[in-house]
Amino acid sequence: MPGKLLTLEGVRKAFGAHKVLDGIDLGIETSEIVGLLGPNGSGKSTLLNVISGFMSLDAGQVSIEGRAISRLPADAVVKAGLVRTFQLPSMPTRMTVREVLQAGSSGGAGVRSWFARPRFDADLDSLLDQFKLSHVADLPASALSGGQKKLLSIATALRAHPRLLCLDEPTAGVHPELRTEIVNILRACNAQGVTILVVEHDMMFIRDLCRRAVVLDRGELIADCAPKDLESNPRVVEAYLGKAVKKGKVRT
Ligand code: ADP
Ligand code: MG
User: Fold this and answer.
1) Terminus-to-terminus CA distance in the chain, angstroms?
2) CA 140 to CA 160: how far, in whole Å?
3) Contact indicator for 60, 11 with CB cutoff of 8 Å
4) CA-CA distance, 250 to 205, in Å (whole number)?
5) Coil, strand, or helix at residue 20?
6) Which residue out of 42, 46, 55, 222 has the highest number of ligand 1 atoms within 8 Å of its CB and is therefore the one to mutate?
7) pLDDT in tens, 196-250
8) Distance between CA atoms of residues 78 and 75, nearest Å
9) CA of 87, closest atom in ligand 1
10) What is the H or E stretch that residue 204 is in?
C-alpha cells in the first residue's frame, strides 16, 4: 500500500492456540483519524502492542511510509514517529506530574528516545492547564486517579511530537467534560498533521472525532466504514450481539 503512513499486511498474533490477530490488513493515510472498535477481548490492545513494538508479531509486516518497523524495538518505533498510550497507564512513583511531562516520559519502554527528544518547556504549563492537571502538577504521578493518569499519558505522548499517535481508550475513566476537551485537543493536533489511531468504546467520541472506523472481531477486521454506518452494518451488530449499539456505547 504505497502512499500510506501506516500499513499492516497479514499481521498475525496468537497466544497459544488463541488466534487474536488472524491476518490483519490495514492502511492509514497521513492526517486520518481512525477509530478502532471491537468487543472486549477482540484484540484491540494487542493490535496496538504489535504496531508499537511492545509485542512481537508472529507473521506479517507493519510499516511506516513503506519502512518496516515490525521487528524494531519500541524505542526505535517511537523515533520513527509512532507514539502510543496505554489502556492502563502506569506512572513512576518518584516523579511529579510536572517532572513526568518535562521528561516526556510516562514510564514506558520508549523512555530513552523520548528523553533524547527536544524539550518544549514553554508548552508545559499550557498543557497542564489544558488537561486540567495544573492543581496536581507537584504531586507524585502515581498518586493520580485513573482518569488523570490517562490525561497525563496523552499530554506526555503529545510532547513527543508524534506523526502517528495511537491511543488506547483515552476517555475511559475521564470526566465527561474533559472528553470534549480531549476531542478538541486531538482535532487541533490532527490539524497540525498528526495522524491518529484511537481505540475507544464511546460512540459519541468516535463520531465526534473520526471519519473512519474499523472493527475487530475474532481475529479479523470485519468493518471499515464511516462511524455513522456502524449501526447498520450486520457484521458489527452481530459482533456486539446487538447490545447497546443504539445507545451510544458499543461495549458488550
Ligand atoms: P481488547 O483490547 O480488544 O479488549 P486484548 O488485545 O487486550 O483485547 O486481548 C485480546 C485477547 O488476547 C484476550 O483474550 C486476552 O486475554 C488475550 N491476551 C492479551 N494479551 C495476552 C497475553 N500477554 N498473554 C495471553 N493472552 C493475552
Ligand atoms: Mg484493550
Assistant:
1) 33
2) 21
3) yes
4) 12
5) strand
6) 46
7) 999 999 999 999 999 999 999 999 999 999 999 999 999 999 998 655 555 555 5
8) 5
9) 2
10) helix 203-209
